[in-house]
Amino acid sequence: MADPTAAILPSLSSALADVVARTRSAIVSVHSHRSRASGFIWKPGLIVTADEALADEGEVSVKFADGTAQPAKIAGRDHTTDIALLRLDTGSDGGNTASVALSPVVPDLGSLMVVVAAEHGIPAAALGVISLVGGPWRSLRGGEIDARIELDVRLRSSHEGGLAVNASGEAIGMAVQGVRRILVIPGATIDRIAGRLETHGRIARGYLGVGLQPVKLEDGVGAMVMSVDKSGPSAAAGILQGDVIIGWNNEKLPAMRSLIRSLGPDSIGSVVDITIRRAGQPLQVKLTIGERPEA
pTM for this structure? Predict the structure, then answer.
């Protein structure tokens, strides 16, 4: 009796190899100060990579699959979604025109996924399985990510920023290191954030104009105002140093982290009801969220 796997496994192997072959020309190595990562050609002259894997300072260079290398500059980076955009110094990709069309498809749980990355410019690949799929979520830093996608795969640090490609050859996102797990930043999130970085160089964030310190209260938690920007939104609302924020839009403050998460791009210009405790007494104030100034 013929072994049924005799035909299936070689066919699967060939299909996966073909998926990698069709993607590898768009994959690059990203070299920054004491840091190595992967990335991909998002548009001609523009490279997307993982923000966490990019050094905070120093020169950046990009090495292509054909062995050529070019210097690049950081066009913008968003710590909250782990997306960074690089612009090649020449404004082109030196003939490497295989930019990636990211798919908005969210993979099915249990489906196979290949991470196509680079090691010193040499293409590399790793096979994994989608281990968790969920809806939109906010990162610990407040970034809005369109879907929760976790991938069971071994990811080297230098492969962070590589493409996650499904069995149909669709690039569905970027593989990054999460907290004790590998995450895929979805294509929809990358296109949205990278588009803003290309145009504006930054992602606008909400701004309260205060320095906060979490404090424990008898009936919950609060955020003590340690400093106030005299020209910021909190000063305009009458908030003073020493006040304790205990409520946000008529709800108890669950944690200071949730307050920070609420200051996304869409929060700018919105009016919120804030409950503060001043000298032991509750006080309601209305505050118009501003835009965080550039550092």
Answer: 0.80
CA dist 178 → 4, 151, 165, 182, 187 (Å): 38, 10, 18, 5, 17
**DSSP structural state of residue 261:** H
Tens digits of residue pLDDT in 223-264: 999 999 999 999 999 999 999 999 999 898 888 878 887 888
Backbone angles phi, psi at 290, to 5 degrees: -95, -170
Q: Give the CATH H-level superfamily of domain 206-291.
A: PDZ domain (2.30.42.10)
What residue has token string 């399985």? 129
Domain at 1-199, CATH class: mainly beta
Q: Where are the domains positioned within the chain?
A: 1-199, 206-291
CB-based burial of residue 291 (10 Å sphere; 0-12 exposed, 13-18 middle, 19+ buried)?
middle
Three-state SS for 38? strand
